[in-house]
Amino acid sequence: MEKQKKEQQKTFLGYQLNEKLNYSEKLSFMLDIHTNNVGDPFVNGNCTTNTKVIERAVLDYFANLWHAQYPSDPANEESYWGYILSMGCTEGNLYALYNARNYLQGKALYREADQDFSYVGSLKENVKTKNAYHPVAFFSQDTHYSIAKAVRVLEIRTFCEIGEAKYKGQCPITQDGRWPREVPSEYGNEGPGSIDVDKLVQLVEFFAKKGYPPLIVLNLGTTFKGAYDDVEKVGNLLQPILETYKLATRKVNYAPGTSDNRTGYWIHVDGALGGSYLPFLKKAGGRVQGHIPKFDFSLPFVHSIVTSAHKYPGSPMPGGIYMTKRKYQIAPPDDPEYTGSPDTTFAGSRNGIVPAIMWCYYASTSDEIESDRAVKMEETAQYAETKLKELENEYQNYGYKLWVQRAPLSLSIRFRDPENHEIIRKYSLSQMKLQIDGETKPRKYVHIFIMQSVTNEIMDKLIVDLRYVYSETFFSIQDKVTQ
User: Fold this and answer.
1) Which of 63, 65, 396, 483 has the fewest CB atoms within 10 Å, counting from its CB?
2) Which residues pair with 228 in a beta bridge?
3) Among positive and negative, which fits the CA dihedral 67, 68, 70, 76?
4) Is 331 helix (H, G, I), strand (E, B) or coil?
5) Cβ contact 217:195 at 8 Å
6) How does 159-177 read in b/e, with b if 16+ C-beta sit within 10 Å?
């Protein structure tokens, strides 16, 4: 097994995983110790083999990176709260939407001081519109599948579901009034993969006018195209709409004599890859051309952010960061005393190795080093795009297109599926069909992701292999045409 995995590692291109890892020398001892970070990361609890002290150090690092107030302080509601995930961003997205749903439904907030774990909803006599505590979810057609899974598990209704059930034929962004399943991406399947901001704003306004609190998911590195949504633009355009319909802030009475002021909306940023990578691209100054979107807690309308550790900087096992502000924390449904630490995370038992991996990485680097690495990845992505387009030009004159595309500053390049099992397996290529407007059959694509482990030499090998396979396919087509 070791031989096979190391062989695959050498040419791994198809997924957002960094295969350039070196943790065994420092952390191999942890494979002989069960470490468990059960409970809140800021309360050690009684499981003494936890790694929470370094978990908190990593969280402080990301709070600084994402311009959140730190250290985390129960007395400062503007300070951050978060934890290190045992899964990837699927866990973080699920927990973010769970918190968002309960927050917008008017459930009780988490109060550290008096340990109020009451799990109650808003009082009906204080509801001014029947839709006030029924959140509606918005996310783009290029959003990660974990979001669709999360809204189903949490029974959060999407704008499409509510639209079809209550406002059939009234969709403001389609000519026939039909509701699309997700918010369209710019220029559809052939576009870069970022959300169509204008259409999102129109959809949100339609439901805000009817009193629904919007739950909006934005992306920093979409799953297949690696596109970045413009979080700042979305928030700025939505603010006047939210203020007009009294959703920018509202008073929630959730128990007799108990109330708080909170927003009537939630913006979650799925930064699976971009959340831990783009800040260093920003710090690189003008070394990379292009718009680097702002997405973090310096924007007052951002409620939560997640990122995956196994994508960037890289980890031998899934992990990541979930972060919000203390003022947005929802009271958990139970208080299991025997753990010795509040049950404020989604998972019960939590991986204690990932915090150690992340600490090892960030304790031995600097902003300058990380900026250099980010720039290098962009340069390699540009090299890969150039080489694939050069290959495409070899066949372009004969009408055989490779559909090479790359979203602005994306680490993902997509192109025609070679439909060759050996190539797919050798480079671990990810496959996807996309229906393009005006075409009868969906296009078959693959994509590559340029992570720290990808070099120009690996790309050169891929080009050689692709040239051979595409040539076989092309000449086979030509032979059939001439027969």
Assistant:
1) 483
2) 220
3) positive
4) coil
5) no
6) bbebbeeebeeebebeeee
What pLDDT is recorded for position 119? 42
CB neighbours (10 Å) of residue 120?
A: 12
* Residue that the structure tokens 């599948």 belong to: 145
Tokens of 203: 């959809």
Peptide bond into 192 cis (omega under 30): no
- What is the rounded distance in angstroms from the CA atom of residue 436 to the CA atom of residue 443? 7
Q: Which two tokens stand for residue 43?
A: 């309360």
Q: How would DSSP label each residue in 353-374?
A: HHHHHHHHHHHT--HHHHHHHH
Which H or E run contains 202? helix 197-208
d(CA 241, CA 216): 14
Q: Residue-wise over 442-468: b if at least 16 C-beta within 10 A, else e?
A: ebebbbbbbbbbbeeebbeebeebbee
Residue for token pair 């702002």? 294
Check residue 29 and report its DSSP letter.
G
Q: Which of 68, 79, 96, 60 is nearest to 298 (CA)?
A: 68
- DSSP for residue 444: E
3-state class (DSSP) for residue 195: strand
pTM summary value: 0.95
- Nearest residue to 243 (alpha-carbon basis) of 297, 204, 299: 204
Q: Is the peptide bond before 313 cis (omega within 30 degrees of 0)?
A: yes
- Residue whose structure tokens are 């595409």: 470
The structure tokens 């927003």 sit at 263
Bridge partners (DSSP) of residue 262 are 250
Token digits of residue 421? 């099992």
Cis peptide before 279 (omega within 30 of 0): no
* 193: alpha, beta or left? (left if phi > 0; alpha if psi -120 to 50): left
DSSP per residue, 208-236? HTTTPPEEEEEEBS-TTT--B--HHHHHH
Q: CB under 8 Å to 31, separation ≥6 — which residues?
A: none
Q: What residue spans of 83-177 are helical by DSSP H?
A: 89-104, 145-153, 159-166
CA distance 38 to 340: 9
CA pair distance 86, 321, nearest whole angstrom: 9
Query: Distance (Å, rounded) from C-alpha 361 to C-alpha 57?
Result: 12
At 53, which amino acid appears? V
Over residues 179-229, the pLDDT tens digits come to 999 999 999 999 999 999 999 999 999 999 999 999 999 999 999 999 999
**What confidence tens digit (pLDDT) does each residue in 391-414 have?**
999 988 778 899 999 999 999 999
